């Protein structure tokens, strides 16, 4: 994902911004070990980018680990969110393993799907436009 | 994948730690993005999940034990209240009614007591249960200076969950109290309780005493006493076949119970 955007917010483990296509994007910084506080910081930031319902693309390429508490927070269980769906971009065995654990064991309450490319993730997110 | 990679050793050691229920150890994830890094991360996350599940399971076990403890204490309170209400009572009918009720409640409380006192919390061993139960019944019902013996030949393979143990315990309670009340006028005799496991799920329990025996042509379905009605009702609850007779290996009464645990 192109980080050359003017509205990018820098967090400890993430770059986060609103895309011109209305899809919120968050990209993991290389080698990040995501803790609960990073997850909370990220979701607060993401939810603060718009007052409307939105879809989210998470670029998980380069992630090193995400703690169970952080994964639980990202599952959106027991908290309100305007996020409609999450597309996760993975490339390596590691990022795929972490994403699969998140989907399979943490069981997020939103629709979540893995993609190899940003283009495919964007196409999927656009299918949620109708719900907005 | 290089099999001399020491991450394989680390993964195996971590899995052994999990087998010892130690879920705190983790493998350091390095910058390599190969399959072993992914497996290491997966095993780390699996440990985190197992740790939470193991804590939750322990908490559930603790709560279940606490629940059995409270049920047992509440039953004890009920029996104490019954006893207190009869302190100034002289009517032998009322006293007998209270004593029988107390004994029935105590036979159920004993199952709960054994469940929270043991390491496991699901099964009760029949031999241990009957031993405690008969001692408790003897304290209430045995006539003074008696020479009544209890012989237990209960297989150690007989374990029951609470759903089966309570009706079975109540049946044995009724049989022992019946013997102590009616069978041994001369205060001498023997009670024999045998139980064994038959096959995967089958059980046979045989109760005998060498006391006065049952009336001629005794039929449990015709009996009007609460104790016998309870035995019939509780046997139905176990889906058990019951048999009564007065000609066992001894001259008194013989009661047989055969049932299979439901899957």
Describe the structure.
- The complex is a heterodimer of chains A (132) and B (263).
- Chain A is of the alpha/beta class.
- Chain A has a single domain, classed as Rossmann fold (3-Layer(aba) Sandwich), CATH 3.40.50.
- Helices cover 33% and strands 25% of the residues of chain A.
- Chain A is built from four helices and eight strands, in the order ββββαββαβαβα.
- Chain A has helices at residues 36-48, 68-74, 93-106, 118-126, and strands at 9-10, 14-18, 24-28, 33-34, 54-59, 65-66, 83-89, 112-115.
- Chain A has a six-stranded mixed beta sheet with strand order 1-2-3-5-7-8, with helices on both faces. Chain A has a two-stranded parallel sheet with strand order 4-6.
- In chain A, helix 3 (93-106) links the parallel strand 7 and strand 8 (112-115).
- In chain A, helix 1 packs parallel to helix 2 (68-74).
- The longest helix of chain A has 14 residues, at 93-106.
- Chain A is globular.
- The two termini of chain A are 24 Å apart.
- With 263 residues, chain B is of the alpha+beta class.
- Chain B has helices at 6-19, 35-85, 92-117, 126-141, 162-183, 226-237, and strands at 123-125, 147-154, 159-161, 188-198, 202-209, 241-245, 254-260.
- In chain B, the strands form two sheets. Chain B has a five-stranded mixed beta sheet, covered by helices on one side.
- Chain B is elongated.
- The mean pLDDT of chain B is 89.
- Chain A binds chain B through residues 31, 64-65, 67-68, 71, 92-94, 96-98, 101, 105, and chain B through 29, 31, 33-35, 37-39, 41-42, 44-45, 48-49, 52.
Question: What is the gist of this entry?
Answer:
The complex is a heterodimer of chains A (132) and B (263). With 132 residues, chain A is of the alpha/beta class.
